[in-house]
Design brief:
Blueprint (H helix, E strand, L loop, with lengths): L39 E2 L4 E3 L15 E4 L5 E9 L7 E3 L5 E4 L8 E9 L5 E9 L6 E2 L1 E4 L3 E3 L5 E5 L6 H10 E6 L4 E7 L2 E6 L8 E6 L5 E3 L2 E3 L5 E5 L3 E6 L4 E6 L2 E7 L12 E4 L2 E9 H4 L6 E9 L6 E4 L17 E3 L1 H10 L5 E5 L20 H6 L13 H7 L4
Parallel strand pairs: 1-8, 9-18, 11-19, 20-28, 26-27
Antiparallel strand pairs: 2-3, 3-6, 4-7, 5-6, 7-8, 10-12, 12-15, 13-16, 14-15, 16-19, 17-18, 20-21, 21-22, 23-28, 24-25, 25-26
């Protein structure tokens, strides 16, 4: 020991005068030292298996702190990196050994706080600092879309730089991806494939909401050969809730803003053999002019047109656009090759009203259903229960009963 032993017999507190002058006493110990005295340096009481000097620790190697001597013991150990992430650990019942039970982060700086107690019960403290070596293979996450303002139907996407397979590895990745919205809303990640995840709420995003997306994967071990890397956070906002409902049987499109109808327009949709897909489609972008050709879709009848005020709905080329050549059919019959055609004036209004992320729903068509993935953003066509099954953390759990749900519902203190 490098300190003097202290006697722990506590004397009773005396009454305090209004102003403590000479001779006034408060609670203390019989050796004259206040119980709140600064803990002694416990360097000589513990041993640490971390790196020495400027060396860096292997994140694969568990940390271990042990008590030296017969009578001293460890009372508490906390290990955190500069991002505030704690490392899980276990302290033996006799207080002689503490060791980590979860991997360290790669390329991180750690502070380890060790609290001890000597045979007399006096507290000791030691701070340990070290760094870990960087990962050789880093898994990066690219969030989408770009920061900006979108419609309430815009899903958040996460593109991984390397494929991730296996339930345990996917759980680590998914647990590290955070989406917060104001106002708050319930949502979940869904694995589209081994390199792509989509996030959407149970219902659409609230109108005029703020959405913050971030990754806490940096330095985290994903599997034996892969560690998380740095990723740029994403900030999104939503505007008004704009929804267009196209009824292929009545040949009309009705547009709503925040639940109130703002316009209704005659349209034409896909003719037999080229029926427009049913279901919810998310606006992918706005293109003032698009060249459309029969050869691009394999149509028998030839056409090659410059199409104006084109609002894209699918990757395969389904648009809402101006179709002045079919004005006589709009409101009466379906004559297009799958797009929704309308007058130039109506198409210009629609083009100027909607934005990326707004919603277009086609009903009463004889066409196929819009798929959830693979041809734009059809995420909303998948039922919520099925969507949750695509989450590694939520699959197989009842809504509101999974650890993720419970954490979300736990009151904030």
């Amino acid at each position: 020991m490098n300190h003097s032993p202290r006697i722990r017999t506590v004397v009773s507190c005396t009454s305090l005068v209004v102003a403590l002058g000479a001779g006034a006493t408060a609670c203390g110990s019989s050796d004259g030292h206040p119980l709140s005295a600064k803990p002694y340096d416990a360097a000589g009481q513990i041993a640490f298996n971390g790196p020495a000097g400027t060396q860096k620790a292997d994140p694969e190697k568990p940390l271990e702190v042990t008590a030296q001597g017969k009578h001293g013991r460890i009372t508490d150990v906390t290990a955190t990196d500069t991002l505030g992430r704690y490392v899980a650990g276990e302290l033996s019942a006799d207080g002689k050994r503490w060791h980590t039970t979860s991997p360290l982060a790669a390329g991180a700086h750690y502070t380890v706080k060790v609290s001890t107690e000597d045979e007399e019960g006096s507290p000791g403290r030691k701070l340990l600092n070290f760094e870990t070596t960087a990962a050789k293979k880093a898994l990066k996450v690219e969030f989408g879309p770009e920061s900006g303002t979108y419609g309430v139907g815009q899903p958040v996407t996460a593109k991984l730089s390397k494929p991730v397979k296996g339930k345990e590895a996917r759980a680590i990745v998914e647990r590290s991806l955070t989406v917060r919205s104001e106002p708050a809303t319930q949502g979940a990640w869904h694995w589209v494939d081994s390199e792509t995840l989509h996030y959407r709420p149970k219902d659409y995003w609230p109108a005029n909401a703020s959405i913050n997306v971030s990754s806490h994967l940096d330095g985290i071990k994903v599997n034996d050969k892969l560690w998380g890397g740095e990723s740029k956070p994403l900030q999104l906002k939503t505007g008004d809730r704009i929804e267009a409902v196209t009824d292929a049987s009545s040949h009309y499109m009705t547009v709503y803003r925040n639940g109130e109808e703002i316009n209704s327009m005659p349209v034409t949709t896909g003719k037999p053999g080229w029926e427009t897909r049913n279901g919810v489609k998310v606006v992918l972008g706005l293109e003032y002019v698009v060249r459309m050709t029969s050869s691009a879709i394999g149509a028998a009848e030839f056409y090659d047109k410059q199409v104006y005020y084109a609002t894209r709905l699918t990757d395969s080329g389904e648009y809402v656009h101006a179709a002045p050549w079919s004005v006589g059919s709009q409101g009466y019959e379906n004559v297009s090759h799958g797009c929704t055609g309308m007058s130039t004036g109506d198409a210009a209004w629609f083009y100027e009203t909607v934005k990326q992320g707004d919603l277009v729903k086609v009903i009463n068509s004889y066409g196929e259903d819009m798929p959830a993935f693979g041809n734009g953003l059809g995420d909303w066509n998948m039922p919520w229960k099925e969507w949750r099954e695509g989450s590694t953390l939520l699959a197989g759990t009842r809504e509101g009963q999974s650890p993720v749900d419970m954490a979300r519902l736990r009151p904030q203190i």
